[in-house]
Amino acid sequence: MAENRLAIRAVNKTFHVDGSALIALSDIDLDIAPGSFVTIVGASGCGKSTLLRIIAGLDAGEGEVLHGGQPVAGPSLDRGLVFQEPRLFPWLTVEQNVALGLENAPLDAAAKRRTVGSHLALVGLSAFAKALPRQLSGGMAQRVAIARGLVNRPSVLLLDEPFGALDALTRAHLQDELQRIWAHERITTVLVTHDVDEAVLLGDRVVVMAPRPGRIAHIFDIDLPRLRDRRSEELVRLRNVVLDALETVSGNSLAQEAVEPADRWRSLPIGDAALPA
Ligand SMILES: Nc1ncnc2c1ncn2[C@@H]1O[C@H](COP(=O)(O)OP(=O)(O)O)[C@@H](O)[C@H]1O
Ligand SMILES: [Mg+2]
Predict the structure, then answer these.
(1) Helix axes 168-185, 138-150, angle to 10 degrees
(2) Cα distances (angstroms) measured from residue 82 to each of 58, 64, 106, 126, 242
(3) What are the CA-CA distances from residue 59 to residues 12, 13, 15 (Å)?
(4) What is the pLDDT of residues 80-135, one digit of tens each?
(5) What confidence tens digit (pLDDT) does each residue in 183-215 have?
C-alpha cells in the first residue's frame, strides 16, 4: 500500500498581511503511513488548518507534499475532505449531497446510486436519503459530510475539526462512529483538532503543534486497541501526558484556549473561592 503514503517534506508557509509577514508553518516534516490514523492537535492559530489545506492541495507552501510518491499539486478525488461545518447544499436531498462527491467518477447512474446507498448505510443514514439538510440534526448533517468525503473511496480522508461545532454527547457518538468506520475501511486518516481528548482517543499517532511559528513539537504513538474507551485509565493517563506537552509548547494563555471549557471549570479552586483572604 506504499501508493497511499503521505510525506510532508520541509513545508513552510508564510502569509503576507498588510505588508507584514506571518509565518504560519515552519519546517514541517511528517510521514503518514498508509492506513494509519494521525491526529494533529494544537492551540487555535498554530497552523493546523493551513497544514491540512496544503496536504489536501487546496493551498501551497514551500517544500512539498507527496501522496503515493507523487507531488500534490491541487485537490484530488483521492483525498476526501470534511470540515467543521457540513457544507451541504440546502436544496439537495441527503443522497444528492452525497452523490456530489461522485460527480466526476467514471460510474453509470445505477453504480452511483448503489455507492451512495452503501455510504449512507455506513454512516447510519439510510432512512434519511430523501431528507433535506434542514430536517437533520447537526450530528446527522456532519455524518452526511463524512459520507460525501468517503463516497469516492479516496485513499486519504482529511478532517478539519469535524466535530467542533457539535454538542458533547453528539461529538462522543460521532468519534465512536469514526473509529468504527476507520476500522472498517482502513483509510489513511488525518484529523486536525484543538481537543486533546479527541486527539488521543482517535489517533495512532498524535502530532502536537506549537504556535508562532506553527511547527511540530512532539509526536506521540498511542498504542491502544480499538474501539477505545474514553474512560480507560490508560487513555486518561496518555491524555494528561499530551495535555502537558501541549500546554508547555503553547504558552499559558493559548493552552487555556485549547482545553475544553469543562476542564477549565474543573480546575478552578471552587472550595477556596469563598474563603476570606
Ligand atoms: N489566508 C490567510 N491569510 C492570512 N493569514 C492567514 C490565512 N490563513 C491563516 N492565516 C493565519 O495563519 C495562522 C494559522 O492559521 P490556521 O492554519 O487557520 O490555524 P489553526 O487552524 O491552527 O487555528 C493564523 O495566525 C492565521 O491568522
Ligand atoms: Mg483551523
Answers:
(1) 20
(2) 13, 22, 22, 20, 25
(3) 12, 10, 12
(4) 999 999 999 999 999 999 999 898 888 999 999 999 999 999 999 999 999 999 99
(5) 988 999 999 999 999 999 999 999 999 999 999
> Residues lining ligand 1, judged by CB closer than 6 Å?
15, 17, 22, 24, 42, 44-50, 214
Task: Write down the pTM of the prediction.
Answer: 0.89
CB-side neighbour CA atoms (13 Å) of 200? 22
Compute the distance between CA of residue 31 and CA of residue 10 in angstroms, rounded to an integer: 11
pLDDT class for 252, splitting at 50, 70, 90?
low
For the CA of 42, the nearest atom of ligand 1: 22
Centroid of ligand 2 to alpha carbon of 190 (angstroms): 13
Per-position DSSP letters for 28-49, written without gaps between them: EEEEE-TT-EEEEE--TTSSHH
For residue 41, the ligand closest to its alpha carbon is 1
Residue from 5, 86, 62 nearest 38 by CA: 5
For the chain, give the longest Cα–Cα distance. Answer: 75
| Locus of grid cell 510521514 | 31
Q: How many Cβ atoms are within 10 Å of 260's Cβ, its own excluded?
A: 14
CA 72 to chain centre: 19
Does position 273 have pLDDT exceeding 80, yes or no? no
Name the strand (E) or helix (H) holding 192.
strand 188-193
Does the pLDDT of residue 259 top 90, yes or no? no
So what's the pLDDT on residue 159?
97
